[in-house]
Design brief:
- The protein is 5% helix and 39% strand.
- By secondary structure, it is mainly β.
- Strand 18 and strand 19 form a beta hairpin.
- The N terminus is likely disordered.
């Protein structure tokens, strides 16, 4: 989620990148899943943000829509990976406007605006964030942030741009991040104050009761469903965790190697056997920008991640979405 909201200092901790090369065995294990797991889509850049895909085995990148570059952030993908939704204006800046929720084909063709923020909508520093596509591909869920995250509202709209409607989650507090559709489309998952909530159909949302105590907090609200809908993955900045959607179990998948390393934004591979996630570090420049890379983890043998795309001091990488092979 590239909203450029000021990150809480206690949570940021000077978050670090994991840039060590993976072992030959880890690379071979990942390569065995390469055909069915496709590529990882991300945004990248500094003030100007563009969209790209990365090969999870070689780390080779390619701009979406190449030879041209497409500006955007906050990527989401349809369940079949053929359609991408994204925001076209990224971050909080003065005198902004023109924010949109847009969609396109996976190769960057067919770009069109689904919803554009009206000129009289809230505040000129409003931002549109983190769209999610329903599994049937007919609806998009997104958030608007008129005065920052504490004033967030959520909406749904048809992919043809009609039927804009507010989404009532039935909770008094503002969720930490945009709710996510389960693979069958029947349930929305989101977090409020580090507690996972599930909203099934038209029923009121209810907190997930986890029978194993001690579930870590999730301050950034980055939840992702496993492809089979049985688990949710999240990060608390210091580690990656997986919890059963029925609350029966949870487990730690990986923990950051030191106090300055941050793990964020995990996303499952299409076959559910791996995770890709962002690892973050201070770049050391005066502006204190964060350096980000994509790292990978095999779920059958969680532990030490391997680097897929090393960090680059010239730009950040964020919002990974693992696309199925075509």
């Amino acid at each position: 989620m590239r909203l450029r909201v000021a990150m809480p200092v206690a949570a940021a901790l000077g978050l670090a990148v994991s840039c060590g090369l993976g072992t030959t065995a880890a690379t071979a294990a990942t390569a065995s899943h390469h055909i069915r797991n496709g590529r990882i889509a991300t945004d990248y850049g500094a003030e100007a943000i563009y969209l790209q895909t990365t090969d999870p085995v070689t780390g080779a990148t390619s701009d979406i829509g190449a030879p041209n570059r497409i500006k955007g952030c906050n990527l989401a993908a349809s369940q079949d990976g053929k359609t991408l939704a994204y925001s076209t204006v990224c971050g909080y800046f003065a005198d902004r406007g023109g924010d949109t929720v847009s969609v396109m084909h996976r190769d960057g063709t067919g770009q069109r605006v689904v919803w554009q923020m009206p000129s009289d909508f809230g505040n000129r520093q409003s931002v549109v964030g983190n769209p999610a596509i329903s599994p049937d591909g007919k609806r998009i869920l997104f958030g608007t942030f008129p005065h920052g995250p504490s004033h967030t509202r959520y909406w749904t709209i048809r992919t043809d741009g009609t039927g804009l409607a507010p989404l009532d989650l039935g909770v008094s507090a503002v969720p930490d991040g945009v709710p996510r559709f389960s693979p069958d489309g029947r349930t929305l998952a989101f977090t409020v104050g580090g507690v996972i909530w599930l909203k099934k159909g038209d029923k009121p949302a209810t907190p997930l009761t986890v029978r194993k105590p001690g579930l870590p907090n999730d301050p950034y609200g980055w939840l992702r469903w496993s492809p089979n809908g049985r688990h949710l993955v999240f990060a608390d900045g210091k580690g990656l965790y997986e919890v059963a959607a029925n609350g029966s179990t949870w487990r730690t998948l990986a923990t950051s190697p030191n106090n300055t390393t941050g793990y964020f934004e995990p996303t499952y591979s299409p076959d559910g056997t791996q995770l890709a996630f962002v690892s973050i570090t201070p770049s050391g420049d005066r502006g204190g920008d964060l350096l980000r890379s994509i790292a990978g983890l095999t779920l059958a043998h969680p532990g030490t991640p391997r680097t897929i795309l090393p960090g680059n001091p010239a730009y950040q990488v964020a919002d990974p979405v693992w696309l199925p092979a075509q």
